Amino acid sequence: MSEVRPLPDATDTTPAALPLRSVLPAFVLDLALAVTLSFSTLMLGLFGWAAWRGIQLAQQAGGAPDAQALQAQLGTPPVLFLIVMTLVSTGGSALALYFWRRRATPIERRESTSRLAKPATWGWALAAGLVTFLFSSLMSAGGRALGLDLEPSNLDLIKEGFARFPVFLALFAVVLAPLYEELLFRRVLFGRLWQAGWPTLGLVLSSLAFALVHELPGLNGKPAASTLFLIMVYAGMGGIFAWVYRRTGTLWAAIAAHILNNAIALAVLQVYGGAQV
Question: From CA 54, how far away is CA 52, in angstroms rounded?
Fold first, then answer.
């Protein structure tokens, strides 16, 4: 495991770097653990729902139905269940990785708190949130002009969720998702390499991981060109959040920027029908 050091001061742009061979394996392990915990929790939830639904169908049929008939009747999980499982699987993984691998030291917590009292921190957070939304909007407009399919893979889920559970979906998309995504991708993943003196590499790798969580090639049902473009958009958004975290020295600035971007995007989604959330 790499040496544990406090995060560099936000004004220190040239910290002494630890050997990459001692840091990169820890980053890869963090990422592997996050994927494993999130995927296994999600699969466990889906299997649990399928078992519960199968029992319901068997009771309605008055006995054990035919396997093929049961499979046809199972259908898909309700939207609220999918949203909650996303929250539990990804949010739970973020919390587990934070407390297990990247918990903030008392010095880091005091420094982060002191930065919250600075007006510049909130100014940078506001600017980063607005720039993130403008960046994704301009990129999306350019991609559509090229004839690409740039509807995010989670768009239908968000639309249905907002139509049926507007308060919960707004809370999830605007507050909860930014909280656990920033904790995982910026504090755990980016922070690992930033702390070790490799902030640029950390920004690139953590932003790529952030993008792939939102648009995974081969599983989003989109052409390769559209998928690559969406990955570029999400990676750029992640890069801005990582930058404002480093610039201000507090994760709360990245969280605030992410919340602002998602709030604007959700509002635009309700008016125009499309945005990156």
Answer: 5
Distance separating the N- and C-terminal Cα atoms of the chain: 34
- Model confidence pLDDT, tens digit, residues 152-167: 888 888 888 888 899 9
89/121 Cα distance (integer angstroms): 31
What's the rounded Cα separation, in Å, for the pair 10 and 14?
10
Contact residues for 114 (Cβ-Cβ < 8 A; gap 6+)? none
pLDDT over 70 (residue 69): no
On whether the CB atoms of residues 238 and 254 are closer than 8 A, the answer is no
Identify whether the C-beta of residue 139 lies closer than 8 Å to the C-beta of residue 231.
no
What is the spatial distance between Cα 251 and Cα 273, in angstroms, rounded to a whole number?
A: 30
Which residues are within 8 A (CB) of 266 and not within 5 positions of it... i.e. 6 or more apart?
Answer: 158, 162, 170, 173, 174, 275, 277
Q: DSSP labels for 195-245?
A: HTT-HHHHHHHHHHHHHHHH--TTTS---HHHHHHHHHHHHHHHHHHHHHH
* Contact (Cβ atoms closer than 8 angstroms) between residue 270 and residue 162: yes
SS3 153: coil
Report whether 112 contacts 118 (CB < 8 A): no
Average pLDDT over all residues of the chain: 88
Exposure on the CB side of residue 167, measured as CA atoms within 13 A:
0
Q: How far is CA 182 from CA 6, 121, 149, 162, 190, in A?
A: 18, 16, 27, 23, 10
